[in-house]
Amino acid sequence: MNARGVVFVHSSPTAVCPHVEWAISGVLGTKVSLQWTPQPAVHGALRAECTWSAPVGTGGAIAGALRAWTMLRFEVTEDPTPGADGERFCYVPTLGLWRGQTGANGDVVVGENRLRAVLAETPAAQVPAKMHELLGTAWDDVLEDFRYAGDGAPVTWLHQVG
Question: Which InterPro entries does the record associate with it (predicted)?
């Protein structure tokens, strides 16, 4: 079963852009050429985004491949499919990689067992901070300016070669 998703490279140094394309190409098994545009949130940085279609789990593989380039800021989404939850991965150099499960509308979903564990293991005063961690709030806060700067940017469509 194939899933679909989006890769948002919010900021990349110019010299790293070919490596980003090679990393995504390696996961998808096909040559990837992204359309890079200036990222106004960081002087000299570029941004690109692309949609992809490939087997379930590809979003995590793409995020893992991009994580090797620690100066990037990126997000990778994978839409839910029958039998598989959606996922969103966010990477910010100062915070590292965050992964969240997503519902059909794209909202982050926190499972009941994770919530029960937080309630059982976290002092009451620290529960709000733990909830923000589970929701990826710190990553969203950092990436929001980068997302806004990408409004109206071109999108590349990618499909894995069978």
Answer: DUF3145
